[in-house]
Design brief:
Blueprint lengths: L1 E7 L3 H9 L1 H7 L6 E8 L6 E8 L5 E12 L3 E6 L4 E9 L2 E8 L7 H4 L1
Antiparallel strand pairs: 1-7, 2-3, 3-4, 4-5, 5-6, 6-7
Length: 117
């Protein structure tokens, strides 16, 4: 399992919206400057599906990244099972107007752990 953390200088309500609304996901959901996320759908509820289209900006490669939500606790926690059967949990913790995002997920075997972080 890998864990990554980030602190955003915004209240949890705003961070939650940017994390979960497709019109925002397409602006941040990519691994680096040479990637893009041109499309995203998100049905944020237990049993709901999510999917984002990931593409290299040069058009050389693309794939769909998705899964199904298992648990959604508003402004606190999201757990999911990815389409490749790996699990992921994202926690949101607000303190003093900032929000810490802590995501734990099962690593995949194709890429290095450093790249996945």
């Amino acid at each position: 399992m890998l864990t990554i953390e980030a602190t955003v200088e915004k209240p949890v309500q705003q961070v939650w919206d940017f994390w979960s609304k497709p019109e925002h996901i397409t602006h941040w959901n990519y691994a680096g400057d040479d990637w893009s996320c041109p499309a995203s759908v998100n049905d944020l509820k237990p049993g709901g599906r999510f999917s984002s289209r990931m593409e290299a900006k040069d058009g050389s490669f693309g794939f769909d990244f998705g899964g199904t939500y298992q648990e959604v606790v508003l402004h606190e926690r999201i757990t999911s099972v990815l389409d490749d059967k790996r699990t992921a949990q994202t926690n949101f913790k607000e303190q003093n107007g900032e929000t810490k995002i802590i995501q734990t997920f099962k690593a995949e075997g194709e890429n290095t752990l450093e790249l996945q972080q």
